[in-house]
């Protein structure tokens, strides 16, 4: 149950295992072992995971259903630094600059749908 919920939460945030492990200050293999049900986290790590995903430990352990809403503040807090910088740069653009970025994002989303692999994306860029 824990491993399924952990993977589901990570997918909801669209994070990689490496990104989550960095946010939790742990080795990526350790985090992967939690998702693969090879290891169980200690209570300290469990609390850190719950805090990161804004859920209760009871939810992670399958004792309760979630009672959370992702606030804009929580979403921003959980962005990686590079994404925060991009977001802040966007906020500082003129109205025309923001509109250009929105149009560009629509084009990028169409070009790089989720089912494309990293190698596909590299081929399109290069």
Short description:
With 126 residues, the protein is mostly helical. Helices cover 66% and strands 0% of the residues.
Kindly give the count of domains: 2
Structural class: mainly alpha
Number of strands: 0
**Low-confidence segments:** 117-126
Instruction: Give the CA-based shape.
Output: elongated
Helix count, DSSP H or I runs of 4 or more residues = 9
Kindly provide the name of the CATH class of the largest domain: Mainly Alpha
- The helical percent reads 55-70%
- Name the beta content range: under 5%
| CATH topology (fold) name of the largest domain | 434 Repressor (Amino-terminal Domain)
* Average of the residue pLDDT scores: 79
CATH superfamily of the largest domain: lambda repressor-like DNA-binding domains
Main sheet specs: none
User: What gap, in angstroms, lies between the N and C termini?
Assistant: 42 Å
Query: Do you know the CATH architecture of the largest domain?
Result: Orthogonal Bundle
* Order of helical and strand elements: HHHHHHHHH
Radius of gyration, CA atoms, in whole angstroms:
17 Å
Question: Secondary structure elements and their pairing?
Answer:
Elements: H1 2-12, H2 17-23, H3 28-35, H4 43-53, H5 57-60, H6 72-77, H7 81-91, H8 95-111, H9 118-125
Structural overview:
With 126 residues, this protein is mostly helical. The chain has 2 domains: 2-70, Orthogonal Bundle (434 Repressor (Amino-terminal Domain)); 76-125. Helix content is 66%, strand content 0%. The protein contains 9 helices and no strands. The longest helix is centred in the last third of the chain and has 17 residues, at 95-111. It starts with a helix and ends with a helix. Residues 117-126 have low confidence and may be disordered.
